[in-house]
Amino acid sequence: MDVLYRAGRATAAEIHSSMPDPPSYSAVRAMLRVLEEKQHVQHQTDGPRYVYTPVVPREKARRSAVRHMIETFFDGSPEQAVATLLSVSGRKLSDEEYQRLSALIEKARQEGR
Fold first, then answer.
1. Single pTM value for the model
2. Structural fold of domain 2-54
3. What is the pLDDT of residues 44-58, one digit of tens each?
4. Directed axis angle between helix 78-88 and helix 58-73, to 10°?
């Protein structure tokens, strides 16, 4: 999906060649079929090739993936997920980043989330 979001549209071969350490070409095609069945991507025919485009907006896909990650790896705890993200980021956050995070936390608190 990342390749499709960056490119906007791509064939299975283009997706395969754009992936670092890709699985087999057949595996990429199989994954595209699954993503199409789940209505995450769609294809158009361009001669003998299928050209795939994302259907789900990137932000919606991002939220869904993070929600799934929090449920799967952090027992549903956003606190544990954020703590892990902060500990593995590999760089020091700037004062501005800390301020933005604090503002987001305060906004969530006020909205009752």
1. 0.69
2. Arc Repressor Mutant, subunit A (1.10.10)
3. 999 999 999 999 999
4. 100
